[in-house]
Design goal:
Strand content: over 45%
Helix content: under 10%
Radius of gyration: 19 Å
Strand order of the largest sheet: 7-8-9-11-10
Largest sheet: 5 strands, mixed, barrel
Number of helices: 1
Structural class: mainly beta
Shape: globular
Number of strands: 13
Length: 199
């Protein structure tokens, strides 16, 4: 009996010592995200932050928005915003969030706004360090497929960011951050309600 209690204590302490990751959005039940940052594989899991959704009422197209969050150390998190991309498989050109799309350009969108920032707590609106996308061949975004039944999207991305605030606030907010071989599969995405106006 003592032997079993020792095993249970060891198992329980092992569970408690595991690194805690950001809380998952209950709308996002399945997610698989891998990649490298500055040439090193993610040390901690990257998860989907609150706000990922599918809209089906824009120009009769399925448009998505997603935020990826990665715990770096202590209470510091980096967020990557993938802002409005079509579910249709294909390649999309990453652009910085300061590049404004023309009105209704989402109807023929062939690019995607990608931005990044650091914050101290998941779900917090206050950022510590802001980054902008550096233009170049290292940036890419590709959608492999979207399954409307599973509400599942699979894609791949790469992006290079440079910090724009002069004084570093977060301890781990380095000057340049480069993501390579980023791959994601996200299921059970939240589908926004479609509102139609009477004609």
């Amino acid at each position: 009996m003592k032997q079993y209690s020792y095993i249970l204590i060891l198992l329980f302490s092992g569970i408690l010592s595991c690194e805690k990751h950001p809380p998952l959005n209950p709308r996002m039940v399945n997610q698989f995200i891998t990649g490298e940052v500055n040439g090193v594989p993610f040390k901690s899991a990257m998860t989907v932050e609150l706000g990922a959704f599918v809209r089906q009422d824009w120009c009769d197209k399925v448009v998505m928005d997603m935020g990826l969050v990665r715990k770096i150390s202590g209470e510091e998190y980096q967020v990557i915003i993938l802002n409005y991309f079509h579910a249709k498989p294909g390649n999309y050109v990453p652009t910085d969030r300061f590049v404004s799309h023309k009105k209704n350009a989402v109807c023929s969108l062939d690019s995607i706004n990608i931005s990044s920032y650091f914050k101290l707590f998941p779900g917090d609106d206050i950022t510590t360090d802001d980054y902008r996308l550096v233009e170049g061949p290292w940036n890419y975004f590709k959608v492999f497929y979207y399954d409307p039944d599973k509400k599942e999207v699979q894609g791949q991305f790469g992006a290079k960011f440079v910090r724009i605030n002069k004084h570093q606030r977060a301890k781990t907010a380095v000057d340049t951050i480069t993501y390579t071989n980023g791959k994601f599969i996200v299921s059970n995405m939240y589908v926004q309600e479609v509102f139609t106006e009477p004609r």
